[in-house]
Design a protein that fits this description.
The chain is mostly helical. The chain is built from six helices and two strands; from the N terminus they run E-H-H-H-E-H-H-H. Helix 2 packs antiparallel against helix 3 and helix 5 crosses helix 6. The chain is globular.
């Protein structure tokens, strides 16, 4: 395996992650999968959260993905939406979002610096916190509210 593929190297399974981490990976994959999948992410936020919270979550997700695309140290590798594997970059992303949502800002900042340039890390950390908290709220909802829950992949 060459270094350009290390970020996609399988390091685990989605089932190994908690709800916030698995949700973050699924939304990362879906966001990168095109306009239709991106619209599904937005719809899930809007269906599961009150309007103001959903709007903030969608905006934060959009900004987070733009920041990752524009300031990443290298392209962030991801697996297919239906893949049960967890890639190295996806694991870092899941841990970033999870740590930020739990209020572990120092850990989240360290993880952000692995993904983006140091000057972009504080912004990525703040956005990851907002998105993580939204996913955390959504994880408490009944399954019928969430089409893309990772449990559906098993």
């Amino acid at each position: 395996m060459t270094s350009r593929h290390r970020g996609g190297a399988p390091v685990g399974h989605l089932a190994d992650l908690d709800a916030v981490g698995a949700g973050a990976v699924m939304y990362l994959r879906m966001w990168a999968d095109g306009a239709v999948a991106r619209a599904r992410v937005c719809d899930e936020f809007r269906r599961a959260l009150p309007p103001a919270q959903a709007g903030h979550a969608v905006h934060s997700m959009e900004q987070m993905m733009e920041l990752c695309a524009g300031y990443a140290r290298r392209p962030i590798m991801r697996h297919d939406v239906m893949c049960n594997c967890l890639g190295a970059d996806e694991a870092c992303f899941a841990n970033l979002v999870g740590a930020a949502a739990e209020g572990n800002r120092e850990d989240a900042m360290l993880l952000a610096t692995l993904m983006v340039r140091p000057d972009a890390a504080p912004g990525l950390t703040a956005l990851a916190e907002r998105v993580g908290l939204a996913i955390q709220r959504m994880a408490t909802l009944p399954p019928e509210f969430m089409e893309s829950r990772p449990e559906r992949l098993h």
